[in-house]
Amino acid sequence: MAVKLTPELETLHDQVHKSLGIDPRTPAYPHLSLCYITDKDAENGERQKFYDGLHLRKDGNGIALDCGDGGGAEDWLSEFIIKEIWVVSCEGLVEEWKVLDIVELQS
């Protein structure tokens, strides 16, 4: 999901890379990953199934996601409030990723 780049996010981006001492290589910045699907699960149709669950909102200003169980009951999500940010080392397979920190956001 694309996220609108604000001056605050740009500053955060710069500060993180400066503190790590690395050059930014983040062409999709900023974005929010809604899920991670392994290649094995993708072969079984999970990526397409997730994509099929996304629907454009009628007002054209974003997406809505049917989070229902697939049994006929619909449970639509069109926005949410983030309460924490997970800092994760994304080395290797998804199953091998390590949570380095969880940052609680102020409410």
From TrEMBL:
Looking up Gene3D superfamilies in the UniProt record yields: Cyclic phosphodiesterase (3.90.1140.10)
One family name in Pfam for this protein: CPDase
Top-rank taxon:
Eukaryota
Annotated GO molecular function terms are:
cyclic-nucleotide phosphodiesterase activity
Q: What is this protein called?
A: Uncharacterized protein
This protein's species is: Amanita thiersii Skay4041
